[in-house]
Amino acid sequence: MATVNLTIPARGNHPRGRKPYMIQNTIDLAVATSSKGTALASSDVYQCLSIPAESVILHAGMEVTTALTGTSTDTGYDLGVTGGDVDNFVDGFDADGASAGDYAPTPAAYAPVLVGGTADTLDILVAAQTGTTLTGKIRVFATLMDISD
Fold it and tell me: What are 73-92's pLDDT values in tens digits?
């Protein structure tokens, strides 16, 4: 299992205050493979979005913007907070079967996630995969709210 840090400054509006705001990042799987140095594999974690301390993740999701290529089959992605609920926002999304423009469904039982006194990341977990993924792009987005004092 490898953790690949793909967090970059997220694009989105981040007004300080008490209004929800959205952040997003496009994960390029060719860059992830290059950053890791070997083929992407089951149990890999892609760190996608930096979540500030004292925030609530109200909702998060992912959209395939460029279909995955490679020999991978049965590739399932989860989206959540590693060390917490790794599939809170997306559970078992069939990533290699998705087309550009497809959104991952949100589980019925998802709940907002509190990020306490320490910043964290919103991560994709490769829950299952056979073969290799070579390319593809996934847009990860989250709606946050600052809850600091």
Answer: 888 999 999 878 999 999 99
Residue-by-residue DSSP string for 2-27: -EEE---PPBS---SSSS-EEEEEEE
Q: Exposed, middle or buried, 66 (CB in 10 Å: 0-12/13-18/19+)?
A: middle
Q: How far apart are CA 142 and CA 60, in angstroms?
A: 4
Contacts of 148 (CB under 8 A, 6+ apart): 53, 54
40-60 pLDDT, tens digit per residue, is 888 999 999 999 999 999 999
Q: Please give the backbone phi and psi of residue 13, each rounded to the nearest 5 degrees, phi first.
A: -90, 140
Instruction: Count the residues in the chain.
Output: 149
Q: What are 88's two structure tokens?
A: 């809170």
| Residue 129, token pair as written in the block | 């995969």
Query: Are 135 and 65 contacting, i.e. CB atoms less than 8 angstroms apart?
Result: no
Tokens representing residue 86 in the block: 């790794």
